[in-house]
Amino acid sequence: MDTNSSHVLVVNGLTKRIGKREIVRDINFAVGQGEIYGFLGPNGAGKTTTIRMLVGLIRPTQGRIQIAGYDLSKQFLQAIRHVGCIVENPELYPYLTGRENLELFARMAEGITQQRITEVVQLVELEDRIDDRVRTYSLGMRQRLGIAQALLSRPQLLILDEPTNGLDPAGIREMRQFIYRLAREESISVFISSHILHEVQLLCDRVAIIHQGRVVKTGQVHQLLAGEPPVIWQLSPTEKAINLLKSLPDVTNVELLEDGQLRTHLPQNKIANVNHRLNQAGIQVTSIQQKKPTLEDIFLQMTEGGPLE
Amino acid sequence: MSNFIGLLYNELLKMVRKRRILVILLILSILIPIFTYAQYRTVQTNIQNLGTSDWKTLVQQQIVDNQNRLSSSRIPEEWRELIKINIQQQQYYLDHDINPTSPGAPTFIRKFVEQAISLFMPLLIVVVAADIVSAEHTGGTIKLLLTRPIRRWKILLAKYLSLTLLVSFIVIATALLGYLFSGLVFGYSGWDMPVLTGFETQNDELITNGVHLVPQWKYILMSYGLAWFTCIAVATLSLMVSVLVRSTAASMGIMLAAIVAGNLLTQLSPTWTTIKYFVFTNLSLTNYLSGTPMMIEGMTLPFSLTVLTVWSLVSLFIAFAVFIRKDVLA
């Protein structure tokens, strides 16, 4: 793998075994500066274990993690200094106020001034409630305080584990915009894990799809999504249509879906033509849809229809 | 270094804001008046039983009795010494107008620590110490704590030091609150009252050769010092359990069970001498000062101090070794 210095996070051959079980196997990827990198997979695929290894909570069995050029296991302090993270839920001390929490974490790093604390509080828009106890915060506010905490030491790399978990749709959109702004304006690299794929699709530059502890696909989101989208037909009688469609030269991959619709692959400019042929054969077409592929489709393909939840 | 003071400050802040200290002070402020009242009742009953409130005649009578025994030739030599000391002590009561059956506040706190050292104070310590690491697991904050640019051993060391400070605070608070509350009933004087100490046991016998009188304030200092040592040992063991067990309830349960077991074992099975190597049978260090015979053969102050120290050092080692290496899985 490329260990180019522009990469903030480089992971090589990362493996974690607990007992005889391989939870994560030979994971490789690299995150560039200012890039938003999605780490996708169903629950139990090894996302959280991988993320915990990235922040030094779990010791890898094998493999190397480099952050800002420092080896995480050999130069832990130098490496972790460049990381801000929220692992799973943003769990802060509920009996302290938001500000006390931030001050507490500020004391655990070097050179964080009171002014920086005010800055991050403004950034996450918590000025009004910062002196209230965290116990009284809503989940969204805790999430934002968690991000404030992660940003305190001006990290080069922000690691977020399921950052939209439990947020309402407005909260999710807000979070997405916020992350986007961080990456673009402050050129912070963001490594973000999620099992909600459409959410990541809108946000990430690149993704790695993990399934049963292995990375099954990596790539830029727009490349993964490139290609002719399938065409979905609703028509009757179905049997006759299948036979006819299969005989046409432009049509490939005729597939009967569960709800009685037919999915085919064919070039966009041939749709009208095919429709005409179907009409001629006395088949009644009630709808034609061209469905753009989503990461979810690709994901289901990669994981052979494994469950998402 | 400034970094480490920050860590220590963080830990103390958490302790204060978690209201644990408040709870401890509250427990003490409720229980000490109850103990004071119990003591007061005992004193009243004593006075009633004696049929006279004139304690001076009583003490004088005791002195005369003791002098008679001294003049008897059948008394062994080492007993004579003890009786002389007894007379000396009783004479002091008379001279300084101290009613030995109705103690002042200093006597109360001296007796209190002798009773509290084996169970009550260790329980208080467990309440504050058992969750010192496990609470970070339960609350999930361990993930934030261990992803800072700080070595794990420093974080645990800050926790341990803050714990020793808290233990010292609890020991001092117990003495102060005891003095304040009991003084309301018994009066605040009696610091200079002579107290017997210097007992030794050898081959199951109480050796009284070294017995002498010390002023009560000195005795109190010594017994609270020993109580502090016991409490530090309990806190150190709690720290280890807290590191090993992820749930606060479990770590508290384990420690409480172990302490109660230690107390029960000494009373149930004094002939099973192996249990003297068990840490929780060695908590009652003040017994060596007051000459209360130990239930198990072969226990001396240096022995108990050694057992407590060895167990503490081993627990500290295990706590640090595990905390530094442990994967934070959930």
TrEMBL record, chain A:
UniProt-listed PROSITE patterns: ABC_TRANSPORTER_1, ABC_TRANSPORTER_2
Keywords: ATP-binding, Nucleotide-binding, Transport
Pfam families cross-referenced by the UniProt entry: ABC_tran (PF00005), DrrA1-3_C (PF13732)
Stretches assigned to the ABC transporter domain: 9-237
InterPro entries hit by this protein: AAA+_ATPase (IPR003593), ABC_transporter-like_ATP-bd (IPR003439), ABC_transporter-like_CS (IPR017871), DrrA1/2-like_C (IPR025302), P-loop_NTPase (IPR027417)
The organism's place on the tree of life at top rank: Bacteria
GO MF annotations, alphabetized: ATP binding; ATP hydrolysis activity
SMART domains linked to this entry: AAA (SM00382)
Alphabetical list of SUPFAM superfamilies matching this protein: P-loop containing nucleoside triphosphate hydrolases
PANTHER family (UniProt xref): ABC TRANSPORTER, ATP-BINDING PROTEIN
Family (UniProt): Belongs to the ABC transporter superfamily.
Protein name, per record: ABC-2 type transport system ATP-binding protein
UniProtKB/TrEMBL annotation, chain B:
Gene Ontology annotations for the cellular component aspect, listed alphabetically: plasma membrane
Keyword RNA-binding: no
Listed transmembrane segments: 21-40, 116-135, 156-181, 219-244, 256-279, 299-324
Keywords, alphabetical: Membrane, Transmembrane, Transmembrane helix
Single GO MF annotation: ABC-type transporter activity
Signal peptide: none
A Pfam entry, by short name: ABC2_membrane_2
PANTHER family: BACITRACIN TRANSPORT PERMEASE PROTEIN BCRB, INTEGRAL MEMBRANE PROTEIN-RELATED
Full protein name: ABC-2 type transport system permease protein
Organism of origin: Marininema mesophilum
Higher taxonomy: Bacteria, Bacillati, Bacillota, Bacilli, Bacillales
